[in-house]
Sequence to fold (286 residues):
Amino acid sequence: MRNFRSTIPALLIAVLVLGSCSRTAERDGRPVLAVSIAPQRTLLQAIAGSDYEVVTVLPGGTDPESYDPTPAQRRAVADADAYFITGAFAFEQTMADALPDSAEVIDGNAGIEMIYGTHGEDVHGNIHADPHIWMSARNMRTMAAGMAACLARLRPDHARIYAHRSDSLAAVIDSLDAAIAAILAGAPTHAFAVRHPSLSYFARDYGLRQHAIGMDGKEMSTSGVRRVIDEARADSVAVFFVETDEQAERIASVAQGIGARTVVVNLLDADWQRQLQSVAHAIARP
Fold:
């Protein structure tokens, strides 16, 4: 089994120019790079440029925590020069095993302090790390730096270009981070509720308290839900984040019990900058 290889740590920048890096594999005349999820694609394209084809492994509307790639999906990334993983999803090992030995597998969580205890444990009793590292501007800055370092290795003659783009991207992300902090500074409460504990890194970045109903896709017991409702009410929670309108309908009674309005957040939106800002505005709304 292939082992993940880590690189050094670090949204959008409307600059997808230049940056042709390659080894031997090409598709449609362009070298191929693979990422696990759409938010990573946004980062990588900003650094790599339009000369690359960036393939996103996870299909739209799919749960990354339960995704099982088909043979056809594995073949779709089999010619990638590098595969950028989040480092926290089971399907990533399956996809990495489909790559040739010459391809690099870059662990996106390298340099990130992972959060444990929000996503249960496996059958062997190993505690899972919270996989939602991209729901943090600070984590994405670290991830982008790792991407730039990999591209510089693949194409040393363009290393200065990648470094310049990475620096520009870091400045944009730092501005986003500061803007979110400013938005939350005026929030009436620093607590929120969420259907699935997907905003743990966001909460850590800004000193917020997350109240989650369930984990690992498992339903909470009635007494457990009641406990979370009571804790959220005591913490003056005013917003309940869900990932789909269907979820909002299904747990409307929970939101009502808390006294919170429901807000849909798209965790896998390629425009992750907009999603983080939306979360901040929802929490800060009176």
In short: The chain has two domains: 26-179, 189-284. The radius of gyration is 20 Å. Residues 28 and 209 are 48 Å apart (CA to CA). The longest strand covers residues 30-35.
